[in-house]
Design goal:
With 461 residues, this protein is an alpha/beta fold. The protein has helices spanning 2-10, 36-59, 71-77, 80-83, 115-125, 131-138, 143-152, 163-167, 170-176, 221-231, 248-254, 269-277, 298-304, 329-336, 338-342, 355-378, 388-397; strands at 21-25, 67-70, 85-86, 100-102, 107-110, 157-159, 182-185, 212-216, 235-240, 259-262, 281-284, 309-314, 382-387, 407-409, 420-425, 428-433.
Length: 461
Amino acid sequence: MTAIKSAWSAVGGDPARLSRVSTVEREGSLQGRLPVRELARACVGACALAAAELGARRAGLPAVPRVRVDDGAVATAFVSERHLLVDGRAPVTFAPLSRFWRTADGWVRTHANYPHHRERLLTALGLPEEPSAVKSALAERSALEVEETVYAAGGLAVAQRTPEEWAAHAQRAAVAARPLVERGRTDSAHARVLAPLDAGTGAPLLPAAGLRVLDLTRVIAGPVATRTLALLGADVLRVDAPRLPELPDQHADTGFGKRSTTLGLAADRHTFEELLATADVVVTGYRPGALDRFGLSAQALAERRPGVVVAQLSAWGGYGPWAGRRGFDSLVQVATGIAAIEGSVERPGALPAQALDHGTGYLLAAAVLRAVTEQSYDGGSRFVRVALARTAEWLLRDIGQDRAEGTAVGTAYDGPGPWLAESDSTLGRLRYARSPVSFTGGPADWTRTPGPWGSDAARWT
């Protein structure tokens, strides 16, 4: 369980707690050339152990509940967006202009799922919205030229690099110099004391019950983190700008357990400050510094809400020459050499899941839970930070394929069936992946299905 030890250490966990973790390995799950299954198992294991630890602390249990990490559940959850059905309809996960393109000297990958990113891509290239036109134009340009041109216009395109090329890149050096999870304490403020939990009622133990979480994240990684906190009992309120709607299917996949509202951080500042005044956790998933002008840096939030935990997620990290760049899992895979490793001489490849997104999401949830546990002993406003590129660094260089004590070998992974569920919702009949976060006495599923994006009031329950 070397990878789980590494993840648990990254969030500041006591190594003695690892004896409470057992794993079920299933051959055939998350197959790739890189140790994706080990990364996924480690991130989920650290998250589940952090949840069990907080639950034991709040319920006064003599021992931390046992954690069980099943590769089948993990593999299913790591492609939850592919398993989602809404009234029998499968979502489209990538738009036509989100793909690999051959260039004059290699390959580039673009991301244009959101309308504003699609417009910027086409504007940068001076092209109509025709894949054939994009294909022809990019074939005549170098990959790095496309990357820089599109970035300058606010769009998203990344040239494919080999692992060796990424190793020599200044951004890789900046990323590698940071820990997998950055953690810190900004003051000694008193943190809100959460009510004790009663573990003798027969109801699921919800470690995050009563925790108020402001969710300012989009796409996959951040919403996976807050979806997990919601599973564990937190009151999660997702806040989006009215002018930037989330993709409906993406929202349905990551909206379990949460409520969703829209606020303009400038126009609706008073409402946001009222929410912040009693929030325990603020999670952001925008480019580093993008929200600072609204007073949403970790330091500014702690000054206005002493005792808050601020969790920050980015693609490339808040340092290095790419600190201010937008990014997504698929683009980080291309830049760091993962696409080259997983591909062939004919074409770049990809991991069997958007594992950087999902894995980083569970790591972020684990870091938040551990911060809350630490606050229960000595208070203090806290911050935690993760980056997709740093998770990629971990996958490329620090995770091995091993088997250790506490590991059981299960049957081969032959499909997601046991880890899927169905439920009616205001969006329609949903088929979805259950959460892989599992510990003795913990919740088996979310108690709330996702509703329409932005349809809830901007207040705490």
